[in-house]
Amino acid sequence: MAERKSPTAVLREGPRALSDQQVREIEGADLKGVLDVDIDDVIEYVHKDLKSLPGYTTLYRRYLKQRWDVYDLDFTQDKIDWTEKMTEDERQSFLAIASGFHHGERQVEIELPVFMIGAGEEEKLHISAQIEDEARHTVFFDRFYREVVGLQGDSIMDILDASFPWVAETFVGPFGLLAYQADEVRRNPYDERARVRYGTTYFLWIEGVLALSVMKVTLSYARWRGFLPAYYTGFTATCRDESRHVQGGMKYLQDAVRKDPSMTKEIHETLRTILTLAGVASREVIYEPLGWTQDEVRLLFFQQLGRKLKDVGISLPPDLQAMVGSVQPVLAGG
Amino acid sequence: MSEPEFFSPQWAAAVQDALAAGPSDPDRAGKLPMYWGFFDQIKASYPASWALGCRDLPGGPAYLFVQWGGGTVTDCRITGPEEARNATYQLGMDYADWRALHDGYDPQRTVMYRKILVEEGNVLEFFKSVYFFTECLGIIGKVPASFSAVAVH
Questions:
Q1: Where are the domains of chain A?
Q2: Nearest alpha carbon to residue A304 among A252, A262, A243, A257
Q3: Domains, chain B, ranges and CATH?
Q4: CA-to-CA separations, A301 to A75, A214, A235, in angstroms, rounded
């Protein structure tokens, strides 16, 4: 497993360059090798290409090389860690965070196909790969909740039902919005303004900010304690998949704004709704058992949002900047 | 006393009373004061109206028209499609999903799984108060009703 260091070891370091060797290790690692990859490096890798975004065909080719088999994971040691080594506080904190991702993966899987209708041909390749990624991530969490947490059920929905009590009431904010925006795209698949609003919620907020924050918190905990090796492996591989999703999504938004600068207004209006919702929490999540504080998670949010906006070249008007400061660190993702 | 029929005038009157009263103390107990502060703030100044449709009633689609103003529900009645178009937000849901909501299905997932959808109205504006909406949907689901109609599909 990757070197054991504190969960927040590089939180305040800011952007850093990865060596060519580190990039090769991240890009080329097979599923077994992913266990030795540092999650902090993978999250840095997500941002590596944001300034010169790769094309959709390049992302599709990366997908073909990086695709992994979710059924190759062995959760035996994770079950031992979960039941015998982790404390009850650690388990409850972990579930309060991971359950948002369990449901988030299902949501982003089913809301993505309509976006493909109005996409260009190369982009369709990338989106089809992303749909398969999201389906695989849904199975990953289904297996984790069955085989490690011990939830029981006959179907994927049974397990989703069983983990739903850990999901905060505010989850409906970004994920309900995505569902309704997907319906707008379904009704008008070539409406570029509707697509940009959808892309802002999906790629910029859910994947670019929420998802990467969940990954960082739970994976840095697992690395720190030396626990949950199959979770670490599968979710770090998921993070590598997310790097392609974020890069593809940011490319879509960047291209849309370059083609028609008035699209910035759609991004801002969508963020205005999202940030209104993100300023409210319905439950208190205790992060300390996982090695984080609420303020550190909030800082993580700000860093993720700031880097995406900066790298893609989108600035925020003063009222949105003020709203960012009120964001509550409630984690979910997809 | 028998329960009012779903989507009857008597049921709409009971919904108005329930929405005006707001969430019960046990419902409030499980969530942070910040969350209810947001709910109460929206409720106090919410100027919009909802037309909550049932798409497949035997007599054709019908709507529960809910007008908010001054921190309460100022109008709540059953209307047809014509009048529903006057609402700020027109939403639609199938009879089976209304019944599931009444039987305890989660209002948050009712939205997230697109069982109820905004059919007319600005989605971004609607979502700025979606926590208020889902809590109200939960309140509506708890209003006693009998479901004797047979949905048409």
A1: 20-324
A2: A243
A3: 9-142 (3.30.1050.10)
A4: 30, 10, 19
* pLDDT at residue A15 is higher than 70: no
Answer whether A164 touches B (CB < 8 Å): yes
Output the CA torsion sign for A216, A195, B121, B8.
negative
**Cβ-Cβ contacts under 8 Å, A172 against chain B:** 108, 111-112, 130-131, 134
Q: Contact A58/A27 with Cβ under 8 angstroms?
A: no
Contact A273 B117 (CB under 8 A): no
The CA-CA-CA angle for residues B71, B122, B119, to 5°, reads 100
Greatest Cα pair distance, chain B, in angstroms, is 43
Q: Is A175 on the interface with B (CB under 8 A)?
A: yes
pLDDT of A332 strictly over 70: no
- Interchain contact, B113 vs A270, CB within 8 Å: no
CA distance B93 to A326: 34
Task: Report residue A90: phi and psi, to 5°.
Answer: -65, -45
Beta pairing partners, B50: B66, B89
Long-range contacts at B102-110 (CB < 8 A, ≥ 24 apart): B102/B6, B102/B141, B102/B142, B102/B145, B102/B147, B104/B141, B105/B141, B106/A164, B107/B134, B107/B135, B107/B137, B107/B138, B107/B141, B108/A169, B108/A171, B108/A172, B108/A176, B108/B134, B109/A164, B110/B134, B110/B137
Give the residue from A53, A48, A44 showing the smallest Cα distance to A250.
A53
Candidates A105, A226, A107; CA nearest to A176 is A107
Within 8 A by CB and 6+ apart from A273, the residues are A177, B124, B125, B127, B128
Confidence of residue A187 (pLDDT cuts 50, 70, 90): very high
Q: What is the pTM of this model?
A: 0.93
CA dihedral for B115, B121, B127, B131, sign (positive or negative): negative
Tell if the CB–CB gap between A170 and B35 is shorter than 8 Å. yes
Q: How confident is the model at residue B84 (pLDDT cuts 50, 70, 90)?
A: very high
User: pLDDT tens-digit profile of A280-304?
Assistant: 999 988 889 999 888 888 888 888 8
Residue A312: both structure tokens together: 């893609």
Name the pLDDT band for A248 (thresholds 50, 70, 90).
very high
Minimal C-alpha gap between B150 and chain A (Å): 27
| Topology, domain A20-324 | Ribonucleotide Reductase, subunit A (1.10.620)
Task: Give the pLDDT confidence score for residue A9 in this predicted structure.
Answer: 66
How much of chain A exceeds pLDDT 90, in percent? Answer: 63
User: What per-residue confidence (pLDDT) applies to A10?
Assistant: 65
